[in-house]
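Example record for the data management plan.
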Amino acid sequence: MPIALFALTLSAFAIGTTEFVIVGLVPTIAQDLGVSLPSAGLLVSLYAAGVAVGAPVLTALTGRLNRKLVLLGLMALFIIGNLLAWQAPGYGSLITARILTGLAHGVFFSIGSTIATSLVSKDKEASAIAIMFTGLTVALVTGVPLGTWIGQTFGWRATFLVVSGLGGLALIGSALLVPSNLKQAAPASIGQQVKVLTHPRLLLVYLITILGYGGTFTAFTYLAPILQDVSGFGNNAVSLIILVYGASVAVGNIYGGKMADRMGPIRALTLIFTGLIAILLVLTVSATHPVAAVLTVLIWGAFAFGNVPGLQVYVVQQAERFVPEAVDVASGLNIAAFNIGIALGSVVGGYIVDGMALTDTAWIGAGIVVLALVLTRLSGSLDRRGQAETVAA
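Corresponding structural encoding:
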């Protein structure tokens, strides 16, 4: 594998860290800036909104530009966004910084996969993408808990300074290692993009993604306050528990992908969503007992992100069936759907925290995932009906 891949992996690590580290810093930021927990939770929502907009819109606008120049520009924007967050004088400016960083995130993962595959031969494309996305997994396992600890020990601003430093290293690595003459596919036409956005079967998958991911983030956005205010853990313990959660996420991602390969995405998603519903319901009760809370969070991590491979594989399968000329566009829009789910889930969680108890985010999140499960079964039923009609024809 070319060493340039590791520059992309470092970029993915920095970007993944800055997206999810905010979850561990919500109470710290709320206290320091004198805002409510729901207001601090909006920093998760608005970042995800930036990703959701950036992925399809900015990817389309930059489709004809040199890939390396776009990559370097994205990392520069990422660094600027994190430096603005480091120096943000107040809540409003911190929101602006988060949205800017989210825009960079959205385009990076839209073009990062194509850059990774252009660096290797055809038979190594899947491995190249897997190596790049390892940066996200490592960010959840190490970057997020470490960033949380830095923020709680030295102040939340220090976390954004450190992350901007990681972005600087990734920028230098990309400038030195990524070649300038990358292969560049013709960008999808407006008509192809509209077809993806309006096809009912693809819209159904995007809705499953939004609800399945959004249900998790209704509670996950407020994980740190739950652990502190309900379970009674201190700051250092919260950082350690988030580390445990990240390790569980890594395992869940691997097994979620294997399940989707072995039994197909619909059966895999059915099992994962069912487990996620159950564990969120358990969290509603177990959060008040420290040991039970840690065990629940450990299991929750495995289910929370285990649906990602199945959802991404399923949207590609549906795109190959219904809009084969725009599979990349369909895949990129699913990345946007994940982040719409994050944004909506954290907003819903904010309303719950504002008017109800912190633990109510868990059972309401479970209810949202129930909707994703119902739509998953519906989509599977439509698949079987379509296959039967094809055989009959």
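Summary line stored alongside the record: The chain is about 85% helix and 0% strand.
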